[in-house]
């Protein structure tokens, strides 16, 4: 089985930085993925980590520590359009993703 | 660049009816996945195709559920004798080999 935990909600101010943590306990590990999902829309791929360390993609960065079963997604220079749900997902084998329940981020002016 | 396409976007049906959803993946992607998502939860894996071969079915997929990908391109997901608990968003995703999966907008199923 798998256990993937992330906070339910976070609120931040426009222009600020927000860090969304994700902890996992899974039987296997073959990558950790972050997706953004606006209400009623498809999850959109943001970033993934297979090895320990930081991956940076523009305003978004993702970090992984496999020994700690821990990842975070860092959103910088927050914009109103970043208000969405952020999903942490672990790939335990070659194909299947197991998702956390998602973190709803609200950006305030 | 056309993404993953799903139709219909919404389906409302009475309990006991059969429904079928279609997914057209990104054209060069050989893998296709079906997930189900309920309100406030992340997507849950249902099944996976490598080309036309269905390689895994989740235990969530009861005998009333069947999925096909006959020519290794589009896929259909059929639910027979729908129940209230089947109400959910059904998401399709595709990838080339084990590259990141790209999702469609989903089909929202409501059972009356």
Unreliable residue stretches of chain B: none
What is the number of helical segments of chain A per DSSP (H or I, 4+ residues)?
Answer: 0
How many H/I helices of chain B?
0
Low-confidence stretches of chain A: none
Shape of chain A: globular
From the N-terminal CA to the C-terminal CA of chain B, the straight-line distance is 37 Å
Major β-sheet of chain B, in short? 7 strands, mixed
Largest sheet of chain A: 6 strands, mixed
Q: Please state the structural category of chain A.
A: mainly beta
- Beta-strand level of the residues of chain A, as a percent range? over 45%
Portion of residues within helices of chain A: under 10%
Radius of gyration of chain A: 13 Å
Order of helices and strands of chain A: EEEEEEEEEEE
Kindly report the average pLDDT value of chain B: 94
Q: Tell me the series of helices and strands of chain B, N- to C-terminal.
A: EEEEEEEEEEE
Categorize the overall geometry of chain B.
globular
Task: Summarize the largest interface: chains and residue counts.
Answer: A-B, 23 and 24 residues
Question: Which structural class do the helices and strands of chain B define?
Answer: mainly beta
């Amino acid at each position: 089985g798998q256990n993937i935990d992330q906070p339910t909600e976070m609120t931040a101010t426009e222009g600020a930085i927000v860090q969304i943590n994700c902890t996992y306990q899974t039987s296997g590990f073959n990558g950790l993925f972050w997706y953004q999902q606006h209400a009623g829309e498809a999850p959109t791929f943001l970033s993934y980590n297979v090895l320990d360390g930081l991956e940076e993609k523009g305003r978004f960065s993702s970090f992984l520590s496999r020994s700690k079963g821990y990842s975070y997604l860092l959103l910088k220079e927050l914009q109103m359009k970043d208000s969405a749900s952020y999903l942490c997902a672990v790939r335990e084998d070659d194909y299947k993703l197991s998702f956390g329940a998602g973190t709803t981020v609200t950006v305030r002016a | 660049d056309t993404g993953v396409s799903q139709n219909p976007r919404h389906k409302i049906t009475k309990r006991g009816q059969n429904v079928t959803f279609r997914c057209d993946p990104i054209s060069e992607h050989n893998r296709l996945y079906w997930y189900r998502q309920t309100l406030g939860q992340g997507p849950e894996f249902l099944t996976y195709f490598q080309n036309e071969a269905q390689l895994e079915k989740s235990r969530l997929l009861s005998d009333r559920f069947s999925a096909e990908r006959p020519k290794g391109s589009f896929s259909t997901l059929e639910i027979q004798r729908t129940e209230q608990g089947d109400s959910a968003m059904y998401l399709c995703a595709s990838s080339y080999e084990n590259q990141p999966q790209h999702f469609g907008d989903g089909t929202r199923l409501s059972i009356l």
